[in-house]
Amino acid sequence: MRPSWKMYALECLYLLICSVAAGIAAMVQCIGRSYRGEHSSFIFSGSTYSYNPFAYILGLVLFIGALYAGYRLILRRTMDEFGRAGALYVVVWLVIAAVFAVVMVVTVCVGLFLILGMTGNMLQVDSLKLTALGWPVLLFIVMMITAIYAKTKED
User: Fold this and answer.
1) How far apart are CA 42 and CA 138, in angstroms?
2) CB neighbours of residue 16 within 10 Å
3) Which is nearest to 18 in space by CA: 154, 139, 146, 105?
4) What is the rounded CA–CA span in Å between residue 51 and residue 64?
5) Are 84 and 1 in contact (CB under 8 A)?
6) Mean pLDDT, the chain, whole residue set
7) Between vectors from CA 134 to CA 143 and to CA 106, what angle results, nearest 5°?
8) Pairwise CA distance, residues 137 & 62, whole Å
9) Dihedral (Cα; 113, 119, 120, 126), 10-degree rounding
């Protein structure tokens, strides 16, 4: 069966909402950051901050909530139609998800740039990597799981 373009439009809407929510949640994670000192390198010098654990968890919860709410409100209705689609449409679905995962990386990095500036630095580098790289990977995995679930449910 050939799915309608509406299915892909709703997927793009969902992924766009998730990308914007990720950018906002990344900025929320920087609320209450604490100053740790100065850093200097060959080219740049600036301030070093560390995350406020409460704000970091709040940002994470906001992002996960946006993933879940967006799925419940936007994507869930189109999954029956997607389950009847052919393999080519699944590939297109995943390519769109991969493109928006890259968009999410850019969105999160721009949000952090707006908060920290060009020379700001966040400690807990693993937490920063989880936000900037882990969230887009999580979004792509969620899209893969929804595709697999819709296809197995239809069979």
Assistant:
1) 35
2) 15
3) 139
4) 19
5) yes
6) 87
7) 85
8) 17
9) 80
Angle at 96 between CA 61 and CA 87, to 5 degrees: 115
Report field, pTM of the whole predicted structure over 0.85? yes
What is the rounded CA–CA span in Å between residue 104 and residue 26? 11
3-state secondary structure 107-138: HHHHHHHHHHCCCCEECCHHHHHHHHHHHHHH
Indicate the helix (H) or strand (E) that contains 39: strand 34-40
Q: How many CB atoms lie within 10 A of CB 127?
A: 17
Give residue for tokens 């020379």. Answer: 119
CA distance 134 to 154: 30
Q: Is 47 helix (H, G, I), strand (E, B) or coil?
A: strand
pLDDT per residue as tens digits for the range 46-86: 888 888 999 999 999 999 999 999 999 998 888 877 777 78
Which are the contacts of 17, defined by CB distance < 8 A and separation ≥ 6? 66, 70, 74
Instruction: State phi, psi for 98 to the nearest 5 degrees.
Output: -65, -40
